[in-house]
């Protein structure tokens, strides 16, 4: 009889644990319950194999907005630019915050990394400081660097078209370094470029969804020691937090894909450039007002 009661008690406890740990699906959009789809999502993110293709397939199957859980963390996937604008821009006060990233923000960053901090007083102060150097008015001072590096970018692409990825990454990294350190980067082997790339990898890896399932245990085991190691590279972290290098390179690659997918649009852009600018010089920032089609093309990206 005692054994029977023990079995019943274990079953009851298992039921309670299941209910408490079961992901909450309340107030979420269309929920992805197919474990095969979940495996595809996590596999593409972990292996870095075109996750956008997986999400595009989910949009066709579930619609422009769907959700799933990584552990107990809900994830909402938006596959519509209109939805993204409505939720993240028009209702930004509600939806533009970030989830609590214990490893990436609390432990590695000591709660001081604005890019992973949730919306609040600290984030607003951090954003204000960033705005001082990254506002539209402030970026006017960077145009000389951008013009020079753009010319070098085009030259390198003409000479070595098969190495476009490294060329684009060098271009974007050199702009960041020239603005931050006052010198250019001639190649990806530049010591500052390599340190910046390594820093970004270190700081972005812990931010991947589901990367650390038991963050609390890591904090108890290592305490502030992990954070002290990160503080030693605070200067490099500033570049990684801005994420300007990675974002710029990704935008250019995305533009190349768009041009290849929509050649008719590319021909219209070229026609406008030939008509307004001609072929004797490159366009400059001062030409923006007279290149409306090009500007709209860039906004679509």
From TrEMBL:
The keyword Oxidoreductase applies. Keywords: Heme, Iron, Metal-binding, Monooxygenase, Oxidoreductase. Pathway: Secondary metabolite biosynthesis. Transmembrane segments: none annotated. It holds the Pfam family p450. It comes from the Eukaryota. InterPro entries: Cyt_P450, Cyt_P450_E_grp-I, Cyt_P450_sf, Cytochrome_P450_fung. The keyword Coiled coil does not apply. One of its GO terms (cellular component) is membrane. Its cofactor is heme. One of its GO terms (molecular function) is monooxygenase activity. Belongs to the cytochrome P450 family. This is Cytochrome P450. It comes from Rhodocollybia butyracea.
